[in-house]
Amino acid sequence: MRVGPLSDDKIIDLLTKYFVPVWLSNDHFQLAAPSDAEQSEVMRIYRERERRHLATGTVCVVVLAPDASVAATLRLHQAADPEILGPFLQKIVDDGKLNPRSAEAIRATTAASPPLAKPRTEGGMVLHVLTRFADMKPNRGVSQDWLEWTPAEWSAFAPAKDAAVRAVQTVPKETAYNLFRRLYPPWATWDPRKCQVVGGTLTTAVVAVEGGEIRLRLEGEGEMRVPVGDDPVGGKITVRLVGAARYDTARRAFTSFALVSDRAEFLRYWKGAPLPAKMMVGVEMEP
Questions:
Q1: What is the per-residue pLDDT across 240-275, written as a single tens digit (0 to 9) for each?
Q2: Cβ-based burial of 248 (10 A; exposed 0-12, middle 13-18, buried ≥19)
Q3: Are 45 and 58 in contact, with CB atoms under 8 Å apart?
Q4: Phi, psi (deg, nearest 5) at residue 104
Q5: Degrees (nearest 5) of the Cα angle 243, 281, 170?
Q6: Which of the chain's ends, N or C, has fewer CB atoms near its CB within 10 Å?
Q7: How many whole angstroms separate alpha carbon 226 and alpha carbon 234?
Q8: How big is the chain by its Cα radius of gyration, in Å?
């Protein structure tokens, strides 16, 4: 949805002027558990959809009327197409003879941009992880997560002040694996705790030392197993990473750290047939 209809100017204009979008998830990975009131409301909407024989499904667009009754629904595989979602929303506007909200009302209900992720531990290093499928079909989104390496973790592979060019260090296994567990595809079941790292390495190599700064080349590769349906290891992720980092010897801190991959793959099977999907991966240290 994010890379399809929710990036379409016409859809954005309709939603902004005539609707108040709300996103609810059945999964609460890394979030606090939903309140009883939220769970009760979700179940009320679900039961009404079933009672009125409206489109259901665990992923669905639901439009509520001002009295909170369900006005219309649209399944995800249809809603992911702007050419279907647009007329669906426009019909609701036309049938209800809705008046557009004022610019002031729109601004008043526009959510502020979320703040940058900050380390929970003093001196911690926060990495922003993004993955997506290479084909970028309208129903394919981008997943993102944040990982923090503590000072003890990142200092274990930080270069020495007198590091020589071509000096190589290996990132400790568990530190690297904590990153690899986040290289999940935008998939139905997304949970790093269920990502099993089969193997992998991440190394740094000094390429230049000058002016109190050490520049490093990063290389990594990993293999992970993730759930597919009822099989806890039914999907396999393989990835090869390259990147670069800068280290300030005076501050004894990384000032940048980035990894990318266009050589990642998510492999699963359907009725015994392999279904490989190419992935793109990006990792960048938060400022």
A1: 999 999 999 999 999 999 999 999 999 999 889 999
A2: middle
A3: no
A4: -65, -40
A5: 40
A6: C
A7: 6
A8: 23
| H or E element in which residue 95 lies | helix 82-95
DSSP assignment of 123-137: T-EEEEEEEEETT--
Q: Which residues contact 194 (CB under 8 A, 6 or more apart)?
A: 226, 227, 232
The dihedral formed by the CA atoms of 190, 193, 197 and 201, expressed in degrees to the nearest 10: 100
217 within 8 A of 205, measured Cβ to Cβ:
yes
CA–CA gap between residue 6 and residue 18 (Å, rounded)? 15
Q: Which residue has the higher pLDDT, 142 or 211?
A: 211
Owner of token pair 């400022």: 287
Rounded CA-CA distance 81/74 in Å is 11
Q: How far is CA 241 from the centre of its chain?
A: 18
Domain-wise residue ranges, the chain = 5-108, 125-285
Cβ contacts of 252 within 8 Å, gap of 6 or more: 155, 158
How high is the pLDDT of residue 6? 80
What pLDDT score does 137 carry? 65
Percent of the chain clearing pLDDT 90 (strictly above) = 60
